Amino acid sequence: MAGHLQRIADTSYFSRMGMPIPLTAGVCVASSLAEAMEVIEDGAFDWMPSSLEDVDPFHGPQATPVELLQPRRQLNRALMRALSAHAHDSLRVAPHDFHVVARNAAMYGYRHWILERHLGLPPHWQRVIDWYERGHWPVGHAPGQLLVV
Q: Rounded distance, CA 39 to CA 140, Å?
């Protein structure tokens, strides 16, 4: 867990939004948050979940085992510190500021990633957090695809 916490601390979240992304299977690239919003509004993708009440779009509802409560708290603390340091202009599309949504979506992704690993489920969330750690925002999902800014 310590290695993951250090990686979280070292990541420049959202810093590469809008930068070119190599052609990747299962990834639709949006060059800006405004473009991603248009794609989502067109109905091709759904927003990635960002609140505790949202159902995991990859694995469905899953109960959190007691043994993951402490590791999740550690992840949440590390993420709050790391993500609060990254309020990029790229997270604003007038008149909206998506900083809180982006932060909450990242935290949701990491919480479900640790659950996915613990339960031995297919690594859908691993793919999502890989994009966060590259400095992008995986903003939306559709069957078999991610929408990444």
A: 9
